[in-house]
Specification:
By secondary structure, this protein is of the alpha/beta class. It has helices at residues 39-49, 52-57, 71-84, 95-104, 136-139, 145-157, 163-172, 178-187, 191-196, 199-204, 209-226, 228-233, 243-247, 249-258, 271-283, and strands at residues 2-7, 11-17, 24-30, 60-65, 89-94, 109-114, 118-123, 128-131, 238-241, 263-267.
């Protein structure tokens, strides 16, 4: 059996493929970002999804995750998987590689992530050859759900918003005051997920000129930080993956058109495309 995981900060999609029966099964769990969880949590999560018999039958694990861009983070995930899947060969890779393989297969492209967080890279059809500098949810993630949420909250709590948006926000989040907000940001285990949750409010009010400008500005910053330099250097199509890219497709493509950036594809989830990629590689 082969187990594939695509993990963001908010959730993880899993697919288990039986190489003998050719049947696959899908599962979901919490997000397993090594910046916010440890190896024990990884082990517990996997064991909660699969029986001991299934875990022993898993021979290969391909784990793609947010926060898995360095050896330390990858080892955190790998140790947890090793404790649960004792018979498996394990490959832990960053979420950018998942996006590249799912979107491009073995073709070259500029690959962009737009979900809870954001990032981008250049993929030559086999490897990531260049990647953007990502400062994470506290300093970066331009264009992402948590970036939009951060911009909205700054405007709300400085009262730099139109009255109708302020009233709508208070009605939807009547218990959220500044002390509670700061507590969530500095003491909750997943502040990036908390911030990204406000993208639902933003999408709901995207018709409003103030909110529309917030969205446009966020995507413009994404283009500034994550696309323009790559487009100048590489004659590759641009691909997008993630919940924000998918749910804000109209707004995103309008900004790309304004900046004369051609895109090839936008998808929300990579897990099925990753399964196809690994099936094809096994056949080869």
């Amino acid at each position: 059996m082969i187990l594939i995981a695509d993990s963001g900060s908010s959730k993880t999609d899993w697919v288990l493929w039986d190489t003998k029966t050719k049947q696959s099964s899908n599962y979901k769990s919490i997000g397993l970002n090594p910046f916010f969880i440890d190896s024990t949590k990884v082990e517990e999560t996997i064991k909660s999804l699969f029986s001991a018999q299934v875990l022993k039958a898993i021979k290969k694990v391909f784990f793609y995750g947010a926060g898995c861009g360095n050896d330390k983070s990858q080892n955190t995930i790998k140790r947890g998987i090793e404790s649960a899947c004792t018979e498996a060969q394990i490959e832990v890779s960053p979420d950018l590689l998942a996006a590249a393989r799912a979107l491009c297969g073995h073709e070259a492209g500029i690959v962009c992530l737009l979900g809870t967080g954001s990032n981008s890279c250049v993929y030559d059809g086999e490897h990531i050859v260049e990647r953007s500098v990502s400062f994470g949810y506290a300093m970066g993630d331009e264009g992402s759900g948590n970036h939009m949420g951060r911009q909205l909250l700054k405007s709300i709590f400085t009262k730099n918003v139109p009255d109708n948006i302020l009233e709508a926000f208070i009605q939807e989040y009547p218990q959220l005051d500044l002390p509670q907000l700061l507590n969530q940001l500095y003491h909750s285990p997943s502040p990036n997920k908390f911030l990204a949750g406000f993208s639902l409010f933003i999408k709901k009010h995207s018709y409003d000129p103030f909110i529309k400008n917030l969205i446009d500005d966020s995507f413009d910053q994404f283009c500034d930080f994550f696309i323009f330099d790559f487009v100048k250097k590489y004659d590759y199509p641009t691909y997008f993956l993630g919940s924000i890219a998918w749910n804000y497709k109209k707004e995103l493509t309008n900004r790309l058109k304004k900046h004369q950036i051609k895109y090839a594809k936008i998808i929300q989830h990579p897990i099925e495309a990753l399964l196809t990629y690994h099936k094809n590689n096994l056949i080869k």
